[in-house]
């Protein structure tokens, strides 16, 4: 059967997974009476809850005698490790762009990776039926983006289409029939080249592993594209590292291919197809699975280095062990090591003493997703404030810089620019009207300056602003950046909070807890209205007497406490504070820093 391998790339919420749903339906991948969940490719619970794609996943459809393997890629740069591996399996990309918003930062990130691999994109302008859609402007911005990313003449001569993924149509013309996705299928078959590996069918078997998984029946499984040759079940293979060193010899006990949303066993894997192989025990991502006669490993795409690090430790608060079942450091370590094996963008190292672990990754969202998965598995953790990783280049200290793309109402643009270019040491790159009374601001800001900024940004823009950020590069160290200005309210007692005490404390600042909450000495219960920390007693009840007076017996009405999400809590804390994470609670607390650790952190923030 004729074969095509494509990846669909887009910014968060531009309709990528919804379009794949329609491609599967219209290609006949589902039975007519089959119950299929919306956004079928988002199989992970967190993906469904947050409406984002976290893990790259494959599917397959048949169209007029051609099998099309489709890879759904994450739209967020924090999960870029998935993108960089997955693009090596495909021969073309479909770039989905919101016709109203145009190309956004995550689009730029993934597209730059695709263009660097020589892939020629098909641009699909999605959501053209929205009232604020401007497809012509979005198309011009796509061309400018490709030119800025160094696309060659062939890549700049890209085909474009107009579509509505939710309505299930795509046409070459804006005023086309708007009936189905046939035009998109035909464009993929015509425009995307067949895998060049098909011509290498008679050579020895070679496959580069791009994603790692585990199955309760088959054990360790690796997925990738067959670069040459064929493989039958039961044949002997060997796994080679990137340097060509032998890792293990094994037999292919199972070969699976993608057929619709499921994987089906096949007898033989052929060059060019994307398959999953079982049977190995040690091989992992970026290793080469090859015939026993092959001695050289396949070249593996390098992965961008991590930019932030977070310390994962045991939960040693007075409330430890009440909610979670997995609280020991060795259990936490095993889970983190397993994660680093599955996700090449994460690195885990032990700290002196072995009670805590340094986890390095791409961004706060990636860390938040890992912590959220762990707390749902029953872990209790204490999490430190994210620290930026620095590098040395020609004897100069370098730090990561992110490109922040911000859409705000015109009236708030001044305060946003002031915050970014002032204390946060950002540089304004571009500022232009975005229509509908909004301004688009593009700035290059050190990663240190953006940690903890999102909550402040939403306050400054009254919740109407949209902030997108993506790793831009490295720049010479820009000096000290001040952290959170406000102090915190710290409990000086153990017990359960009393409504009367919290009511009297409201004039001191915003509360993070309500009445009858379990608290302990050193726990952060709110944000102080001033810059210093303040110890308070949230257990102090009202003195009861026999005297009653109309002016002294007011009803206690508490203001609704501020509830911080996991990512907000991690970004909110200072260096001498921790986030306590359990399956049911997220708490903030102070921690003791010995003089050496305090000195090290002060040096890192200078």
From TrEMBL:
PROSITE patterns given for it?
A: G_TR_1, G_TR_2
Domain named Tr-type G: which ranges? 1-196
Q: Where does the source fall among the domains of life? A: Bacteria
Q: Which positions are annotated as binding GTP?
A: 13-18, 126-129
Stored InterPro entries: BipA (IPR006298), BipA_C (IPR048876), BipA_GTP-bd_dom (IPR047041), BipA_II (IPR047042), BipA_III (IPR047043), BipA_V (IPR035651), EFG_III/V (IPR035647), EFG_V-like (IPR000640)
Q: What class of enzyme is it?
A: hydrolase
**Any one GO molecular function term:** ribosome binding
Provide the GO biological process annotations: ribosomal large subunit assembly
Q: Output the HAMAP family linked to this UniProt entry.
A: BipA (MF_00849)
Q: Which NCBIfam families match?
A: small_GTP, TypA_BipA
What name does UniProt use for this protein?
Large ribosomal subunit assembly factor BipA
